[in-house]
Automatic annotation (TrEMBL):
It comes from Sphingobium olei. Keywords: Amino-acid biosynthesis, ATP-binding, Cytoplasm, Glycosyltransferase, Histidine biosynthesis, Nucleotide-binding, Transferase. Heteromultimer composed of HisG and HisZ subunits. It is found in: Cytoplasm. The keyword 4Fe-4S does not apply. This is ATP phosphoribosyltransferase. Belongs to the ATP phosphoribosyltransferase family. Short subfamily. GO terms for molecular function: ATP phosphoribosyltransferase activity. Residues 56-211 form the ATP phosphoribosyltransferase catalytic domain.
């Protein structure tokens, strides 16, 4: 038998929505996967040819881009931030909907950006942030954070943040307002391009199973 396929899924908030899709595509992780106390990171599934690894959202893209995992599920925010040429993202899974936005303290959002040459921004997304501001003729100096970006303005780290927004509750609770939307975000199925060519007989039916699972969900 060829080596099993390794499927990378994020342990954060996409996971709950991803599991029903995985099941519709015919993949069910072993019981230990659901045991919160388990320290295992790799799990068997009902399919002997597929195992699952559970890693941080940004690391899903890295594992798949390097071919350590052949297939995965990750937000389009992560796909775009890394922009790995080795990643093929054939399917929008229609889960994990949110947006990547700029936010500032309420009441200070009327500063004229046209008068500035450079902005300081706290973010987990320095590449997308720089790209967004460059397109507006501004240089962005990014302070990289891995979470809790919303604290940065009140503590004087940066006036602006670029972060994910869904309900807006986190911004509101921290006295911030959304000033621009950089991009809408949803979760994608990602495949390593080289693996997709070399192991097409294994990967193509799996990709098509996800396409069908999303179509069934959309029709419901
Ligand atoms: N508020 C949200 N609503 C919907 N989807 C979101 C929201 N926040 C994040 N996501 C999606 O879920 C993915 C993982 O986000 P999550 O916040 O679970 O990860 P994290 O905890 O920041 O990552 P890590 O595991 O590295 O700590 C994001 O990349 C994005 O695509
Ligand atoms: O607009 P809202 O509905 O409030 O959602 C936005 C929040 O969700 C995400 O964080 P998450 O809760 O996943 O935690 P994190 O800080 O660990 O990324 C994001 O980073 C925001 O902080």
């Amino acid at each position: 038998m060829t080596r099993p396929l390794t499927f990378a899924i994020p342990k954060g908030r996409i996971l709950d929505e991803a599991l029903p899709l995985l099941a519709k595509a015919g993949i069910e992780p072993e019981a230990e996967f659901h045991d919160k106390k388990s320290r295992a990171l790799r799990f068997a599934t009902n399919r002997p040819d597929v195992s699952i690894i559970r890693v941080r959202a940004f690391d899903v893209a890295t594992f798949v881009a390097h071919g350590a995992a052949q297939i995965g599920i990750v937000g389009s925010d992560v796909v775009e931030e890394f922009n790995y040429s080795e990643l093929y993202a054939p399917i929008d899974l229609d889960i994990g909907h949110c947006r990547l936005s700029v936010a500032e303290p309420a009441g200070s959002a009327d500063e004229d950006e046209a008068a500035l040459s450079h902005v300081r921004v706290a973010t987990k997304y320095p590449h997308l942030t720089r790209r967004y501001y460059e397109a507006r003729g501004l240089q962005a100096e990014c302070v990289k954070l891995n979470g809790a970006m919303e604290l940065a303005p009140s503590l004087g780290l940066s006036r602006r943040i670029v972060d994910l927004v869904s309900s807006g509750a986190t911004l509101k609770a921290n006295g911030l307002v959304e000033t621009s939307v950089i991009m809408p975000v949803s979760a994608r199925l990602i495949v390593n391009r080289a693996a997709y060519k070399m192991r097409s007989a294994d990967l193509t039916p799996l990709v098509e199973a996800f396409r069908a699972a999303v179509e069934v969900k959309d029709a419901a």
